[in-house]
Amino acid sequence: MKKKVLAILICAIMALTLSSCGGTETEDKPAADTYSVGICQLVQHVALDSATQGFKDALNDTLGDQVTFDEQNASGDIPTCSIICNQFVSSNVDLIMANATPALQAAQTSTADIPVLGTSVTDYGTALGIDDWSGTTGTNISGTSDLAPLDEQAAMLQELFPDATNVGILYCSAEPNSKYQYEVVKGHLEGMGYSVKEYTFSDSNDVQAVTTMAASECDVMYLPTDNTLASNSEIIKNVCVPAEVPIIAGEEGLCAGCGVATLSISYYDLGYTTGEMAYEILVNGADPATMEIEYAPQFTKKYNAEISDMLGITMPDDYIAIED
Amino acid sequence: MDVLAYFASLDPMHFMGALPGNVAQGLIWGIMALGVFITFRLLDFPDLTVDGSLATGGAVTVILILVGVPSPLAIAIAVVAGVLAGLVTGLLHTALGIPGILAGILTQISLWSVNLIILDGANKAVNVDKYSLIVSLRNVSSSIITVLIIAGIIICLLYWYFGTEQGSAIRATGCNPNMSKAQGINIDNMKVLALCISNGLVALSGGLMAQYQGFADIKMGQGAIVIGLAAVIIGDVLGEAIFRKRMNFSIRLTFVVIGGIIYYLVIGLVMWLKMPTNMLKLLTAAIVAIFLAVPYLREKRINSFAFKSKKEGRKNA
Known about the structure:
The structure holds two protein chains of two kinds. Chain A has helices at about 1-25, 45-65, 80-90, 100-110, 125-130, 150-160, 180-190, 205-215, 225-230, 235-240, 250-260, 265-285, 305-310; strands spanning about 35-40, 65-75, 95-100, 115-120, 140-145, 165-170, 195-200, 220-225, 245-250, 260-265, 295, 300-305, 320. By secondary structure, chain A is α/β, with parallel strands linked by helices. Chain A folds into two domains: about 35-145 and about 270-290, Response regulator (Rossmann fold, 3-Layer(aba) Sandwich); about 150-265 and about 300-320, Rossmann fold. In chain A, helix 2 runs parallel beside helix 12. Chain A is elongated and about 70 Å long. By secondary structure, chain B is mainly α. Chain B has a single domain (about 1-305), classed as ABC transporter involved in vitamin B12 uptake, BtuC. Chain B is built from 13 helices and two strands, in the order αααααβααααβαααα.
């Protein structure tokens, strides 16, 4: 009896190992009427959720019933991204949409054939380990970047606070994309004559202490696009508003939480653009290897009415108040 | 109607196709679970260092591969890094008298900073197209074979080692520290040694994991201890159920690795069933709870008066 159980177990394991030989290869499908798209999202998050929604809306608008989505969320658990992407590859989806950096990296590793589109990724060169970054990957990957134009963000800071001298840049050192933004913005701001100092924390427990220190030393703060900052914006607001330090934020969600103004990209639009790229690949046979990474289609100057009132800052007319 | 449509949308082939990937990942976590097994089961020491040392293993491996070190050597150095992490926890506990859980937590949070320094950031990619990696999600079947061989070697080594005088001393320390001390075993040294071996294995698993998924991330170790414990417990219960009294040490070690595989098969199953992924953690917790509860409840039933009297009654009839 027990030997039988063991034998069955061993057989099962052997079968699993064998089944991998044929299963993972991608076969050329005949031109199908319906397309299956796998979506791997890293974590439940306002920005990422709206990017996924935009992506789905774009494909639903163009393909209607011809597209089915397999939407999976790793709930912030990085190894689960690999499991999800592997599942997509084995069920041979027509396209994988990877939402956020670790999801894209898992998708990149899992397949060299199925087209992969990333979104909510800031810097593709770093994320994919490509040294000589030229705007296209040359492989099965393309996508959209959530990088707001950092030079224009710096220009916005100068426009609103020309008299400030010390600018602090606050970010989480455990976020993959924040350091890159810090370096670029720092370059622009120093070119304008500001003195720039970085304030980093490595997880959310240190946010309050580091922000308090930054607020006591700076006239203005710049906060890049950073998930940990976004999750802790309430703390930052409660430190910076009493200290009367205004914040220029990298994205709208962060600005709504604790910032005064931002040059906003809409993650929904970003996802929608990604969806349009997916349409090009699925229907018109575009090659992701030669598709340029796209950026958000438009930027809007927005401001947080509540905080700017509290700080007594009058906004120029071309800024739009963020609606709740 | 909706129920029918739901079942019709489940394609068994998809589940079967994804199985090898789940097995490969489960095997890698199984090696990590062997590390947890040494501290949790043999030494009776709840070591929380592993969340940090897993990421350390990944970080060291990726950084070394990026500067051109061959990946087997990179992994070997990662193991050394893991051993050092275990050494720190061990010394905090034995030399400085810090309680076990706290010592592990202290090392774990300090490793968060150390890993950020090693990685020089939060996330580093190691592109499978540019570097030769020993395991990769790109080639699942060869990864399974590689990890199976590695796991086999580790199980043999552990089986041999815990049979030696020193290994037996570690096991004795876990069973009854006072008695071991009375027998002339230096229990502090044994604890440090076991923590070093354990975290070395965890770092090895982290190094394999980073290569398999193609990147190291500062957050890759988060919750690792839970997966490790789950694998140990699932393996224990399953081995116990199949082999009962004949479960020896080598079978026990093997079933720890099998526990890791089953954990990831369950995750694959949950995803295949298209359950809302928000529920994933809750479901995994529920599964581990079931595995923990079943042997206890069975034991309780066998030892209950109701069961005994029934049995007696049958015998007398």
